[in-house]
Structures are given as structure tokens and as C-alpha cells.
Write a structure and sequence with these properties.
Length: 224
């Protein structure tokens, strides 16, 4: 389906489990996520917990617009509104689930649609934190200027006062967004009195938390 947003239309797919009591999960993928390429893997992982609504970011797949974070955020808000309407019409709970760059996108979406829960998988509290981690000791000598939309990303601040539960999934062997960022994210949320539970998967890398043998049981137990 195509959903209008300020940059044009967003390409959206809904995967149904056939379970009337299943929540509706809004999935925000990483920066290279495309439904045609990675949608099957996302559906295999997330339909363990509910129906899935996934979308392409602007400039990728079937979504028109500019491939920048401002566009990603605008597309996420449009699909979040759709998720809320569908969930309300069907009497379902709503869960936002963001992986990697999709973490900040889904954090904003969770607030916008008043999601019952938010899962933040292998992501970062801010773009600045991710850049500083990448630079390591060099950050004292290198000055990086972020685009304003990226510099403004602050997931704990965006979720200040969020009434739902946040589940942080940490990949112990993540080389893309190291586990220290997930830990910093959880601490930042706790400092703002957000209900948060951090689940550590020691043998997981950035893309394979869902392949861990204890993934389904632990996440199902953590979700409200």
C-alpha cells in the first residue's frame, strides 16, 4: 500500500499472523532497509510476536523523497498514524520496534502514536554518541559537524515522560553500533524515569539478535 506523507508517498506492507489478539508492530528498519530485500527476515522475526507494519524510507524501495533523516522521520510519523488507526479499528495493542537507525525513528513514532511498548534493537541514544564511539580516542582531535536533523537526535529526551515500556536489545558482539551504546541508551532512559528493560544477547552481532536461541522467549516475557 502507499501512504501519503509530506515528501510524496511511503511504500508500506502489512504482514498478518491471523491472530485476532496479536499486537500490531510498527517496524522501523536500519538505514539501508528495503522491504523487497530484508522484509522477509524482518517478518520472520517479528511475527513471532504480532502483525507487522513495515515501510521503506524515502529514497529507498517504493518510497519517494530525499534520503535524509528528516525524511525518514516524516515517513515514520505517517506510518505511525496508519498503525494507530488500524490498531484502534481492530482493538489491538501497538508496539514500535526500531533497529539500528530505526531506533530514533521509532522512538519518535512511539510517542506520536502512544504505543504500548517500544523495542530498541542494537541502536544508539544519539547520532553524536555513535560518532564519538566510532572516533574513539581520535574524537579529541577531530571535529565532526552533523546535519541539524542528525545532531538533534536524542532518544532519551524524545521519550521523556513516555508512559509505555521500553525494551532495549543489546548485541554483545555488535561491531556496527557497539553494545556500550545500548547500555548508555538504557541509562539515559532510566535517568528520565522511563520503564526500561535491557536484554543482552552476548553472542549476537548487529543483525542477528533474532537468530539467538533464547530470543523469542526472552522478548515475549519482556513485552507488556
Amino acid at each position: 500500500m502507499a501512504v501519503p506523507y509530506p515528501g510524496g508517498t511511503v511504500g508500506v506492507t502489512r504482514v498478518r499472523t491471523g491472530r485476532a489478539d496479536a499486537p500490531l508492530i510498527l517496524f522501523c528498519g536500519g538505514n539501508l532497509f528495503r522491504r523487497a530485500v530484508y522484509g522477509g527476515n524482518a517478518a520472520r522475526k517479528l511475527t513471532l510476536f504480532g502483525d507487522v507494519l513495515m515501510f521503506d524510507y524515502p529514497g529507498y524501495g517504493d518510497t519517494s523523497g530525499t534520503a535524509d533523516y528528516a525524511g525518514f522521520h516524516a515517513a515514520g510519523e505517517a506510518v505511525a498514524a496508519l498503525a494507530r488507526r488500524q490498531a484502534d479499528a481492530e482493538g489491538r495493542r501497538v508496539i514500535a520496534w526500531g533497529h539500528s537507525l530505526g531506533g530514533p525513528v521509532c522512538a519518535q513514532a512511539a510517542r506520536a502514536m502512544n504505543a504500548d511498548a517500544l523495542v530498541l534493537e542494537a541502536t544508539t541514544p544519539s547520532a553524536r554518541a555513535a560518532v564519538d564511539d566510532m572516533l574513539g580516542w581520535k574524537r579529541a582531535f577531530v571535529r565532526v559537524r552533523l546535519a541539524p536533523a542528525l545532531a538533534a537526535i536524542d532518544v532519551p529526551a524524545a521519550l521523556d515522560g513516555y508512559p509505555g515500556k521500553v525494551v532495549v536489545l543489546e548485541a554483545g558482539r555488535d561491531k556496527t553500533l557497539p553494545p556500550s551504546l545500548s547500555r548508555a541508551l538504557a541509562r539515559g532512559l532510566e535517568a528520565r524515569s522511563v520503564a526500561v528493560e535491557r536484554l543482552v544477547f552476548p553472542n549476537a552481532d548487529h543483525h542477528d539478535i533474532g537468530d539467538q536461541p533464547d530470543f523469542q522467549a526472552r522478548v515475549a516475557a519482556a513485552l507488556p
